[in-house]
Design brief:
By secondary structure, the chain is an alpha/beta fold. It is built from 7 helices and 6 strands. The protein is 39% helix and 13% strand. It has a 4-stranded mixed β-sheet with strand order 3-4-6-5. Strands 1-2 form a two-stranded parallel ribbon.
Length: 213
């Protein structure tokens, strides 16, 4: 959802990215390389970045993980929490979705040991980032035609994950895949590029001024 993030920061919203893990190990990366890439992407997107420190590839739903996430919610106090769509082949993605959903509930509890003042994030919205090849059931799509270049630049920061050690013909293959997905969803709303989102709870609108026609 890098295009949406770029659009939000352009509109002067404060956006915080919470990395649940450091993303390592991977075939060509390292914690130090990944930290540098993450920082570079955050600078391009104009966001603050935090890390929860869970173990990559072994993220597990637990009370400790829930409460640590709830403490972040209490500190940041977000109006919207974006989290991965929970139907996925990647176990970490499925676990993160459940942890974040439950942390939303935990964050409002009184008489708890969770640091910070109780807070209940008003809205959960799921973004599409799946290892499965299926048609995502989007509740709505956001036009990112004006911020697609920023998204490309942020994705390219993760060079160790996409190009290092790969033959020339497959360099940046993932970027082409992301661009094709965004073009597909852009077509569904008659825009060049769009990012899809899903909501479980009814989405309330004050006006219809933001609808794309």
């Amino acid at each position: 959802m890098g295009g949406t993030i770029a659009a939000l920061t352009r509109q002067k919203h404060h956006v915080t990215l919470l990395d649940m893990t450091n993303g390592e190990p991977t075939p060509f990366g390292s914690p130090e390389v990944r930290a540098g890439e993450s920082a570079a992407a955050a600078e391009i997107l104009g966001v603050k970045r935090l890390s929860l420190g869970l173990k990559n590839r072994e993220v597990t739903w637990s009370i400790a993980a829930r409460h640590a996430t709830a403490a972040i919610f209490r500190s940041v106090r977000p109006d919207i929490v974006f989290l991965p769509y929970p139907t996925d082949a990647h176990p970490d993605h499925r676990q993160v979705a459940q942890i974040a959903q439950d942390a939303r509930f935990d964050a409002k509890l009184t008489k708890s040991t969770i640091p910070g003042e109780p807070f209940y994030p008003p809205r959960l919205i799921y973004y599409f980032c799946s290892h499965l090849r299926f048609n995502f059931p989007a509740s709505f799509c956001l036009d990112i035609s004006d911020t697609m270049d920023t998204k490309r630049a942020a994705v390219r920061c993760y060079e160790s994950q996409f190009s290092t050690g790969r033959p020339e013909e497959s360099r940046w293959e993932i970027l082409n895949y992301v661009e094709n997905i965004n073009a597909y969803f852009g077509g569904t709303i008659r825009r060049r590029y769009a990012e899809p989102f899903f909501v479980q709870e009814t989405l309330g609108l004050k006006t219809l001024d933001g609808l794309a026609f």
